[in-house]
Each structure stands twice: as C-alpha cells, then as structure tokens.
Automatic annotation (TrEMBL):
PANTHER family: PHOSPHOTRIESTERASE-RELATED (PTHR10819), PHOSPHOTRIESTERASE-RELATED PROTEIN (PTHR10819:SF3). Belongs to the metallo-dependent hydrolases superfamily. Phosphotriesterase family. Pfam families: PTE. It comes from Streptomyces cylindrosporus. The modification N6-carboxylysine is found at residue 131. It comes from the Bacteria. This is Phosphotriesterase. Keywords: Hydrolase, Metal-binding. PROSITE patterns: PHOSPHOTRIESTERASE_2 (PS51347).
C-alpha cells in the first residue's frame, strides 16, 4: 500500500493534512557560514508556529551530510503534532568537503537505500525521499553521478526524487536524465524552485511530462521573480496541471525563520495561501496543499 514515510513511521497520504512540501528545520553548509539552522528549540518553535496556522506536515529536503539532526526529528514531530518527512540524497559538491564526497564515492546508492529502509546513522529514523540537485542550465559530472545513484535507489525502494533546480533552471535536462535515460517515471520526480526561472513554456512542458512542480521560495528573497509566482501557478492550473503543483517555504537560513523575524513556515499559510486562492479559488489551493503532497511523496515501499 502507498505510504508516506515520516520520521515516526509510514502514514497514509491523506494523513498529512496541510503540507509544506519543501522546507528545512536543520541545515548546515559551508556556503552559508554563520547562518546554520542548527537550533532545536528554534525548530520546535517554528513547527509550533506552523501548526498554529493550520499546518499538518513538513517535508524536509535537507540531504546527507548537511546537518539533518535526524535523531532530534521524532521528538520534534511528536511535540508539535506535525508530521515530518526527512530526506536522504546529496546536494551540489560545493556544499561538502572533498573528504566527505570521497567517503561516499562508489557507494552512494547504497547509502541512499540504507537511509530509506534502515535509517539515518544510528537514529533509527528513515528518510522518506531522495534529494539531489541540478546545475545552472546544465548538469555537471557531480549532478549526473548523484542522479544515477538517486535513480538506482528509487528503483530499489520506490522513494520519490526531489530535485533542487539551480536558479530554477535545467528542468528539462533533469527530466531527460532521470526519466529519459534512467527510467524513473516522471510522476516520481518533484522539481524544486520553479518560481526562480519563470518560463511558462518550460514549466508547462515539465508538467505535461508528468513531473511535480514545487513553488517553494517565499522564505527566501527572489525579488525578481517572487511576484510572478501566482501567475505561473494559475497558468499551470488553467492548462490542467493543478494536480502537479506543490507549495513550500524553503527556510534555509536562521534569519528566515518566523520565530527569528522572517517569514518562515507560517507565511505559506498566512499569505501565500490566500494570495493563491485569489488566482485558483480556495478549493484548488486546498487540494494543492493537502492532496498533491501525499500523492507526490507516497511510495509503494520496497
Ligand atoms: Zn530547500
């Protein structure tokens, strides 16, 4: 049976409730020195704030080696009453030391499968998705390596593959590789950051292929493109792709948390939801927040 793999175990897709389909409670990268999400009490407060505005679940896209603090997640989920899904996978090379990359070379798919089926480290917490990353308008050797491993782990487990698109670009390159060459069904792929490169034709092509499109940037500043998001989402819905849409906050640095004065997770429900309701109607926005994530992240686990 199809289930979403949360940090507290597998649940039916419809149990997710209102879902933030791309966000982070914990994240650490050499690219973001001094801005780490590494504070469990701030994470607890952020989840409580999300719960207070009606949030029911958060899908965390922080992959391997970026400070996931997997062992802390079950207690956070229980305390807040919010379902949490966490990720395995690998980000772009720039987010790691050469030593860490060397350590997983040759066994990356194995690491992903083990985190999805047995657990992350000694935490006993299983990952529920595989996160990888593309590059700017292209895929370098690191991206192709991680995507091959992701596809292998997907075929072994059934897990969904979620992709960070660099500045929202490269969607079709990613689909060509993952789906065209590596045999992943497009409906098992979630493309992230589509709003950062608001080309309506590319977005429609990705949706027509069957991939999920995550519009997931309100916790970050993308001044040039943020205001186009409602139009982009409406264009996709008008073309019949309302069932391919996902929404997320993507809180990546401490200052973006609502409890630290930023928009954080609650903003998705406080402001994005009513704004999109003006474009799509409340009924479709509700389905995008409650039904699409369950379908996108549920798997027939093997
Ligand atoms: Zn993210």
């Amino acid at each position: 049976m199809s289930a979403v793999r949360t940090v507290l175990g597998d649940v039916r897709p419809e149990q997710l409730g209102v879902c933030d389909a791309h966000d982070h409670l914990f994240l650490r990268s050499p690219q973001l020195p001094g801005q780490e999400l590494n504070d469990a009490s701030a994470a607890r407060a952020e989840l409580a704030a999300f719960r207070a505005v009606g949030g029911g679940s958060v899908v965390q896209w922080t992959p391997y080696g970026m400070g996931r603090r997997a062992a802390d997640l079950p207690a956070l989920s229980r305390t807040a009453g919010v379902h949490l899904v966490c990720a395995t996978g690998l980000h772009q090379a720039a987010h790691y030391t050469p030593e860490l990359l060397e350590e997983v070379r040759g066994r990356l798919a194995e690491v992903f499968v083990s985190e999805l089926t047995e657990g992350i480290g000694t935490s006993g917490v299983r990952a529920g998705l595989i996160k990888v990353a593309g590059g700017f308008h292209a895929l370098d050797e690191h991206a192709r390596w991680t995507m091959r491993a992701a596809a292998e782990a997907h075929h072994a487990t059934g897990a969904t593959i979620a992709v960070h698109l660099e500045h929202g670009t490269g969607a079709l390159d990613v689909l060509d590789l993952l789906c065209g060459r590596l045999g992943v069904e497009p409906g098992r792929v979630v493309l992230g950051h589509l709003n950062r490169s608001p080309d309506p034709v590319i977005q429609r092509q990705a949706a027509e292929a069957g991939a999920y499109l995550a519009f997931d940037g309100p916790s970050r500043a993308h001044h040039a493109t943020d205001w186009r998001m409602p139009d982009a989402v409406r264009a996709l819905a008008d073309a019949g792709h309302g069932d391919r849409l996902l929404l997320g906050g993507d809180t990546v640095v401490a200052g973006a948390r609502s409890v630290d004065g930023g928009p954080g997770m609650p903003y998705l429900l406080r402001r994005v939801r009513p704004r999109l309701a003006l474009e799509l109607g409340e009924e479709l926005v509700d389905r995008v927040l409650t039904e699409n994530p369950g379908r996108a992240f549920a798997a027939d686990w093997r």
